[in-house]
Amino acid sequence: MAGLEFKHMYKVYSGGVRAVNDFNLEIKDKSFVVLVGPSGCGKSTTLRMVAGLESITSGQLYIDDVLVNDVESKNRDIAMVFQSYALYPHMTVYQNMGFGLKLRHVKPDVIKEKVLAAAEILEISDLLDRKPKELSGGQRQRVALGRAIVREPNVFLLDEPLSNLDAKLRVQMRTEITKLHEKLQTTFIYVTHDQTEAMTMGDVIVVMNKGFIQQADAPVTLFEDPANLFVATFLGSPQMNIIKSSLKVDGKKIGVVLEDVENNVVWLREETVKQLVNSEIDLNKKYLFGIRPDHISIADKGIPAHVEVVEQLGDETIVYAKIEGHDKNIVIKAPLLNNIKSQDDIFLNFSNERVYLFDEVTEHSLIGMPSFSKLPCEVNRNGEIKLGKETIKVDEEYLSHIMDFAYEGSNFLAIKPEHVLLEEQAGSVPLKVKVDFIEERTAYNIVYAVVEGISQYLIFRASKERKIKKNDNLTVYLPLDNMLIFDNRDNNLFVREVVYPNKAIAKVTTLKNGKKEVNISRGEKLVYDNLPYEDGEYQFVLKQDKAEVVFDKKTAKGIIDKDVITSAPKGQFLSVSCYDEEPQKDINYIYAQIKGFDEYVTLVAKNNFSVYKMPKFKIVVPVDGFELLPLGKLNNK
Ligand code: ADP
Ligand code: MG
């Protein structure tokens, strides 16, 4: 039994493939978590890092609160089951199951006890004397599971264990594995590329694409409130219909105008319109409108469509129909219909009860439950975050994780709906809100609340038992750890490492040729034509966002695009030696060590630069890339 925690985990393979990026996840003890996504999205790599079969490039993995990055695979108390069962062909089922224990010098009578118990659970007690070739596929997979069970691991890792089985057996084994999880009361992490398998098996589903977690939540939540187009279309069968659209305003009403379709406006519900406040809606922009097949019905009037295929599935009918200007068939899921056939001309009615809208560029969902509520805010160095008429007070610790430029101008306080608390907790700060409206979901309600002076909503989940109503005045609590500061391009300015003040001691001397030299104590020298400082000793403060990363031709060869700077201006660079990184939307934070600076230096690089690609590099320090402060001011930031 064990809980796991992944913190900012990355895997970059030696060839430079970024297989897993910034993987953050908490897995509760005894839960059944499914990693799902298309082939190549990083599922197996993640699982292999948990098993200790693959090193972790950056970030931390905790099993039961113990950091295991450097713990050997055999000491992690984990068992893994693969797609290919890899049974020893010359051994019996009994020997196959007991072999791992035998290698560990477990006494034969203990082995016997464990193998018999596992065989009982898996209902293969009568097969123990058989060889693998005398077993069916399903039976072999059971033996492979048995081999894992006898080890009594704290965590079970299963990597596409059913993909070698035929469809019918796969469905049956799904139930078996779910039952096994209940019996063993152990944490399971299960990998599959099959969305139906994921939806039917997991307590929590982690949807991955291109090495990034897209969304992690309960199956019903992913289905009802997908964070983006990928999750919306990956889960659910038949798939969500997606139609290119624009928006139209009529007084307070907003309608979705389906491109090239006659009679084509779907007017949104009042509450749906309100939700659009949190996204900047642009009437000149195109959006992707989404509607699930069971929210379209066949009616007497509406959007004209031409039926291509009808599938009768016993208790329901799936209709595939064409609408004007839209290549892909619209899929309609209806109760049993006997009067519709291929080639019929029909009318479709799009219900506005549950509709989706995605940004065409970012593909983020714009209605329903967002990944983050983003409220305009201003942060100051006294630890105040101003949100409309309210102020949140943060501590020194919080401020020490904020980039310097977060204090400039307006940014956004960003918080995930699931992180907003209704009860005070250590490390959280209060905020007064008023409930505007509520949307009901299967697992909870979504509350849209107003902070006085701000038009965007603070959106959060509340259990149905809480009975929160429209117009309630509430105090919510925001955990500081999860309260992020975004700039207007969604770069997070609240970073995971402590941001030290980038300080060193430096001496300024005028050289014979009139130039000024800045000699960093125990470090390198910089030379400038003009420098508005007198000779003497100073506190040198390197600005976070002014230094530019450069590469010399030799080290950059084959790793970095040719069109970037390849040489640093003489006397105006510093060498960087020790580092980690935290990529954002269009910038990358680099934690570096530079000679003469006591602590880590935090710098901003362009997002096309990864320290994992680049073993060593230099930074150019322009004349406005630093400040010199009197030595007396040593500890004031
Ligand atoms: P999945 O299990 O989701 O199909 P993987 O974790 O196997 O995906 O692979 C993720 C990415 O990492 C892919 O682009 C794959 O080609 C790459 N990859 C996997 N293993 C290695 C390896 N040993 N060396 C280099 N690249 C790898
Ligand atoms: Mg795989």
List the helices and strands and how they pair.
Blueprint: E1 4-12, E2 18-27, E3 32-36, H1 43-51, E4 58-63, E5 66-67, E6 78-81, H2 93-103, H3 108-122, H4 137-149, E7 155-159, H5 167-184, E8 187-192, H6 195-201, E9 204-209, E10 212-217, H7 219-224, H8 229-234, E11 241-250, E12 253-258, E13 265-267, H9 270-275, E14 287-291, E15 296-299, E16 303-312, E17 316-323, E18 326-335, E19 345-350, E20 355-359, E21 373-379, E22 384-387, E23 390-393, H10 396-399, E24 411-415, E25 428-440, E26 445-450, E27 457-462, E28 473-479, E29 484-486, E30 503-510, E31 516-520, E32 525-528, E33 536-542, E34 548-550, H11 553-556, E35 573-576, E36 578-583, E37 587-593, E38 601-606, E39 617-620, E40 626-630
Parallel strand pairs: 3-8, 3-9, 6-7, 7-8
Antiparallel strand pairs: 1-2, 1-4, 4-5, 9-10, 11-12, 11-14, 12-13, 14-20, 15-19, 16-17, 16-19, 17-18, 21-22, 21-24, 22-23, 24-29, 25-26, 25-28, 26-27, 30-31, 30-33, 31-32, 33-40, 34-39, 35-39, 36-37, 37-38
Bound molecules: adenosine-5'-diphosphate (ADP) and magnesium ion.
